Queue: 3 jobs
Job 1
Amino acid sequence: MSGDATQSASRPVADGRGTEERHPEDVRFGERARALADEAREARKSFDPPPPSAADQRALECARDGVGPAVSLYVSARTGDRQVSFTGEEFELLHRAMNDWLAMYARCYGVDLDADFTVREAAEVLLRTHDVLDTAQLLTCVPERR
């Protein structure tokens, strides 16, 4: 993680409220967004598409272990006792993490995708489907539905 809690506490929040002290829960969620982004960046750097026989299993792992935690963090931030405020940077990192995992998901099926979905869009799909694998497929259209 970059920065410490003091540094994070003075960053402007994405909702434009300025630089007032951040709530500890906001800082905690922001730290988790940074960690998810770091994990996604490392996974994408070392990602090798699987052979066709392992594509479904690897795609499931990308959806479950990558897309799911990113979208879940967003949903938790928006549905808890209070709405969490991410900094603009933290929100962008969460967005990038989810899209990195969606790009890896698509590569499992041989599709190069420059994923640029919003976390909110993914959350809405997840809340309708209740299935992160279906969410990844519906967003990316990979693999094609039969």
Job 2
Amino acid sequence: MKPTRFETAIALIDKKNAEDVNTYSVSGMEYPKELLYSQRMSRTLLQFDPNASKALQIAARAQHICRWKIARNEYPMDRVGYLKWRQDLKQMHAELTGDILKEVGYDNEFIDRVKAIVLKKLIKKNKESQTIEDVICLVFLDFYFDEFAAKHSDEKIIDILQKTWKKMSDEGHAAALKIQFSEKSLALVKQAIS
């Protein structure tokens, strides 16, 4: 049976992310970092919103497409440099995703919708943009938080958690509080949101 446009789009996003030279180790197995991240995004999205639209599912899978191609150290190592890097990344993710969707035959309206979600336009006003933001935060908290927290001071982590919490919806908060945190991480989360 011929794969659907949706299946082909997901496969092409995965193919691009499989080229990531950076790897991430899970249970002794090495995975291309952004391929693993994109699969975690898809899984978390469907747990959080089982009825997520195809547009939202594609945006989740493509959230970090080819992220390694724009290195953080190509920008000034300050807040302005960081924000410019993040903006350029989002733009690249949206463009690459748009190209893939065009290639598999989606119309411009659908492509623009997916790109708007990837760019996280109108968070708090657009349900799909808010959902992608919640899922990004949930993936960070579930899979990357412990490792990240170990590298930074408690003060910095609490500040980041408070900023993360502000971006999330009430549903996102409820889902975050169900994550199985380590004892130390849970203490930091509780401190941040109290």
Job 3
Amino acid sequence: MEKRKLRNSELDRKSINEFKEAEKTPIIVILDNVRSLNNIGSVFRTADAFLIQKIYLCGITAQPPHKDIQKTALGATETVEWEYVEDSLQLVEKLRAQGVRVYSIEQAEGASMLNDFQPEQAKTLAVVFGNEVKGVQQKVVSASDGVIEIPQLGSKHSLNISVSTGVVLWDLFSKLKLVNP
């Protein structure tokens, strides 16, 4: 059969233990006051797909275990390391003090377009995704090392956070892995 779809058993995916022991992509995801439990679960699932180092859940962002997070995460809350931190700004300041480069994913003056952005090799990078209505808090944007914007050509002003996360993580992952396979 030509172009036969593969069964899950043929996909050679990692077990939970293999995932936890695997070398991670040096990317941290910060969710700044994300409201939707389904979006949170989707971010976990995307982070699992690209072996993301860690997710920080901040402010009003809900935490596992929750049935609506689990429904979309499909078990990724068991693989991806995560931590709840109440204050996003304090977290950004702490990560920057540790040498992590922090970028808010937002539309702001002086933003770098994602397609032009080149992540620094051998450095951990954190990306901040914001609330579905208000975006990343201005104080967090101001404290970031920079801002990355996803180019959009249509009439709408933004993408859903889970879509934005998928676009950004795939782009950064591919840029990091193509240089260092």
